[in-house]
Design goal:
The complex is a heterodimer of chains A (about 100) and B (about 425).
Chain A lengths: L1 E4 L3 E4 L4 E5 L13 H10 L7 E7 L7 E7 L5 E6 H7 L5
Antiparallel strand pairs in A: 1-2, 3-4, 4-5, 5-6
Chain B lengths: L4 H9 L17 E7 L3 H12 L6 E4 L15 E2 L9 H18 L10 E5 L2 H16 L5 E4 H7 L14 E5 L3 E2 L2 H14 L3 E3 L4 E7 L2 E7 L2 E10 L5 H6 L7 E13 L7 E4 L4 E5 L4 E8 L11 H14 L8 E12 L5 E4 L5 E5 L9 H14 L13 H4 L16
Parallel strand pairs in B: 1-2, 1-11, 2-8, 4-13, 11-18
Antiparallel strand pairs in B: 3-7, 4-6, 5-6, 9-10, 10-11, 12-15, 12-16, 13-14, 14-15, 17-18
Helix pairs in contact in B: 2-6, 2-9, 3-9
Classes of the chains: A alpha+beta (about 100), B alpha/beta (about 425).
């Protein structure tokens, strides 16, 4: 697989390590009264679709940036790559 | 039809015209007591033990493809019971004991070959960890022998003992481990289940669950509606996809594990050998091919094929301990989709939906567990209580903090 890094261009997937479901960006609030259940679901119940999947990859042997990659889990086709930082900022994480 | 040496001789002398299909090919009935979804090794074993040990007479197995088309026909055929944790080791040792009596039990030659498995160690720390694991195995009634370098030299003189980076110092040997012909396991369980009255329905995909006020009453399938008092899902590799149709989210990711077979060689490798400093395991099939594998690719996929970096990594692991295979050509490689759970251990449990049971999350090690998984699942379905040996394999164990994390890697499926 080739991951088209937004800053560095096409890079071999072997340079990256994989974390999983991009929902892992959105860590629950530990002060919430439901935090125990929320952390259980956050950690253990992740998306596992057959088809388009948004997932976190880490460019460990490169610029050490976190990416959100949209990839089809039945064909390995990658349709979108974003910096995880941009995804987090766009969802209002800077507030 | 009972298989025996005499039968083979008789059929050989009379033109082999008396053989019959090993199982029937019935149409689905409108209703069963128990429907097992998934005709892989575990599903067929479940149906077999339901009929044979628990006297269930109205049982069906639904298989989307054909018997033997899934992971039971795609694995590296290794059986062993060399686990450490109390939640695992007694279960896998039970499985090993069932393997030992299996062929007589279901009257089929599954080619159970207890040629031994050796896990190599490369450092003092690793030796201590293996000694501890060997002791845990022996406490659970399994066999384990800690060998030093001379012991390994006697067993496998061809290894690279003086590798500069990872010299082989010794190994943990389980003489009762070995290999089993994987297809024959599917065929033997299918034939055994069928002859005990189980309907094996192939080319029948489950498209939905009929759930009424929190109770599962039956299934929608590509071959019509089927009513069932109990539905037992057993579809490792596709667990998330199937259980999503019942509205459930699982602590499972689907990953691909690749396996490899080389051209045929004369007998060189006596049993199963695993590399302790990387991830590589190898055995030799009866046809002579070296059967080997290593790590999963490490990303979610249902594609049943992997990528080249993992191929390179596996082959490097092989070359690190077996430089003699450097000139051997790989004839085939393939991938299978595996359920990777959040702690590397499986599930055999009831669900929150009445009459709906779940078996899955076997990671890349489900084949060795086939008999015990089927037996314990059948016990759970009939008694509504987990079998004592599988009591830890619950879906709520993460919530309770009762993970069974053999690798100690935490909730990160691609590290188990």
């Amino acid at each position: 697989m080739i991951i088209n890094h937004p800053l560095l261009g096409p890079r071999d997937a072997a340079e990256f390590t994989y974390l999983g479901d991009a929902a892992l960006i959105d860590r629950p609030d530990w002060q919430n009264s439901e935090a125990v259940n929320q952390f259980h679901d956050y950690l253990h119940l992740r998306d596992n679709p057959a088809g388009e999947h948004r997932e976190l990859w880490f460019h460990e042997h490169g610029d050490r940036s976190w990416l959100v990659v949209t990839r089809n889990t039945t064909t390995h086709e990658i349709t979108n790559v974003e910096l995880a930082r941009d995804v987090a900022l766009a969802s209002g994480r800077n507030q | 039809m009972h298989y025996s040496g005499l039968r083979v001789l008789w059929e050989g002398l009379t033109g082999n015209v008396g053989w019959k299909p090993a199982w029937r090919n019935p149409d689905p009935k409108a209703e069963y007591d128990i429907v097992v979804v998934g005709g892989g090794g575990h599903g067929l074993a479940t149906a077999y033990y339901l009929a044979r040990e628990f006297a269930q007479r109205k049982v069906a197995v639904l298989e989307k493809g054909w018997i033997g088309s899934g992971n039971v026909g795609r694995n590296t055929t290794i059986v062993r019971s060399n686990y450490l944790l109390p939640g695992n080791e007694p279960f896998y040792e039970f499985s090993m004991k069932l393997w030992e009596g299996l062929e007589q039990d279901f009257n089929f030659n599954a080619m159970v070959s207890q040629r031994g498995i050796v896990n190599l160690y490369h450092s003092d720390v690793q030796r201590d960890a293996f000694a501890r694991r060997g002791n845990a195995m022996r406490l659970a009634g399994a066999d384990a022998v800690l060998l030093d370098q001379d012991g390994i030299r006697n067993l496998c003189p061809f290894l690279e003992f003086d590798n500069a980076r990872f010299p082989i110092r010794g190994g943990l040997w389980q003489p009762r481990g070995g290999t089993v012909r994987h297809d024959a396991v599917a065929w033997g369980y299918a034939r055994g289940a069928d002859s005990n009255g189980v309907d094996i329905i192939q080319n029948c995909e489950v498209t939905g669950f009929h759930i009424d006020s929190g109770v599962c009453k039956g299934l929608e399938t590509s071959r019509g509606k089927i009513r069932a008092k109990k539905v037992a899902v057993c579809v490792a590799g596709s667990s998330s996809r199937v259980m999503e149709r019942a509205g459930m989210r699982l602590p499972i990711e689907s990953h691909v594990l690749q396996a490899f077979v080389t051209e045929g060689l004369k007998p060189v490798i006596p049993g199963v050998i695993t590399f302790g400093a990387g991830h590589f395991y190898v055995s030799q099939s009866d046809k002579g091919g070296l059967v080997f594998g290593g790590d999963i690719d490490g990303y979610n996929t249902y594609a049943q094929r992997g990528n080249l970096p993992t191929v390179e990594d596996v082959c490097e692991g092989g070359m690190a301990i077996l430089p003699m295979i450097g000139r051997v050509r790989v004839s085939r490689m393939w991938g299978g989709t595996v359920d990777m759970s959040m702690d590397g251990s499986p599930f055999i449990d009831k669900t929150a939906i009445g009459g709906l049971y779940f078996n899955g999350g076997w990671c890349y090690g489900g084949f060795k567990a086939t008999p015990a998984s089927g037996y314990c699942y059948a016990h759970l379905i009939v008694n509504d209580e987990p079998h004592p040996l599988a009591a830890g394999y619950r879906l709520d164990r993460f919530r309770r903090g009762a993970m069974i994390d053999e690798r100690g890697a935490g909730a990160q499926p691609n590290l188990h």
